[in-house]
């Protein structure tokens, strides 16, 4: 999965995974979500997150801020996954740039910690 994140990031000209942005998460809704991987295409943001079997897109909220002219996405969990069927690889959730209020091809980085999938 980590290799997939590196590969996906290298294929996208608009992703920045090298330096962690310093966007304050104080006052944001929900809890900061550790992610397994993130990838960006010209018009889509894709994340892989942990799941106990019931995580869906509606359980998470992407918060977009602009820092130095670039978009920074902070993924927050607003609903706890209370199921008991842990998915080792987690689940994939994605948002279009239109949903995020971004123009296609916008430079994007992630403000979430990375966590390898639990096996």
UniProtKB/TrEMBL annotation:
Keywords: Signal. This is Lipoprotein. Residues 1-19 form the signal peptide. The keyword Signal applies.
